[in-house]
Amino acid sequence: MGKRSRYFFIVLEHVSQLSNPVTTWGNSFKIVIFFIISGYLLSMKDYSVISTREFTIRKLKSFGIPYAIFLLIAVVFSIAYETYRGKLSFYILFDIVYSALSLKGISTLWFIPVLFIGEILYVYNKKNNGVRQFVIFICSVFVLLILHFSVGQCRLLDDSYMFVFLYPCMVLEKSVIAFLLILLSDKITKYFLILPLPILIGGGLAA
User: Fold this and answer.
1) Where in the numbering of this chain does the Acyltransferase domain appear (predicted)?
2) Which of 137, 139, 147, 138 lies closest to 169 in space, CA to CA?
């Protein structure tokens, strides 16, 4: 139930397009909840019996294949749509293809690479001792600040091809945020002994 619920928030994020205060308020935390739930589900597993490399390969298979299939469909559809509109140019074509290759994704597909990278960082962090985990946390916050500043500066520059640098920075920025939210969820689960999330969600749906 918990695994399915996290994807519900991503879908809800992109289908609720009504411009009203309720939608705006809801959109401010749906993605956060998605990564919090992901962290909760990850914290329930034992990673001592699997290496980071093995975990990465498994996730690459489970994330990579669906992502590649749907991304290919999105690329073809985007090119066909721009062709139909008569506005397909080298710039637009390059933007579509580069969005795919840079892992930025197209439309709702952005969250798959972000979740993939965030989970790998989380498992790698779990493999280290307390001191190294703290160092990784501090470095992550520092890197996030640099990426956030870089993304902001790229958006301000008047350069049509600045997205070549912008898109990878956006992916890394969101991935670090995902990692930190997953880590936060893990710590909450460990130290505050909250009720099992699937029970809370199941009870809320039953009500």
Assistant:
1) 28-155
2) 147
Has residue 28 been placed in a domain? no
Residue 115 contacts residue 177 (beta carbons within 8 Å): no
How far is the CA of 137 from the CAs of 68, 174, 184, 195, in angstroms? 31, 15, 11, 26
Tell me the residue range of the domain where 133 lies. 48-192
Greatest distance between any 2 Cα atoms in the chain: 57
**pLDDT tens, N- to C-terminus, the chain (207 residues):** 444 445 555 555 544 444 444 455 455 567 788 888 888 888 888 888 888 889 999 999 888 888 899 899 999 999 999 999 988 899 999 999 999 889 888 877 888 899 999 999 999 999 888 889 999 999 999 999 999 998 888 888 767 778 888 899 999 999 999 999 999 988 888 776 555 545 444 444 444
pTM of the full structure: 0.77
For residue 110, the one-letter residue type is: W
Token digits of residue 101:
């290759």
Neighbour-count burial of 105, counting CB atoms closer than 10 A to its CB (0-12 exposed, 13-18 middle, 19+ buried): buried
Tokens 């699937």 correspond to what residue? 198
Domain count for the chain, please give it: 1
Say if residues 182 and 118 touch (Cβ distance below 8 Å).
yes
- Are the beta carbons of 37 and 201 closer than 8 angstroms? no
Instruction: Please indicate, yes or no, if residue 74 is contained in any of the structural domains.
Output: yes
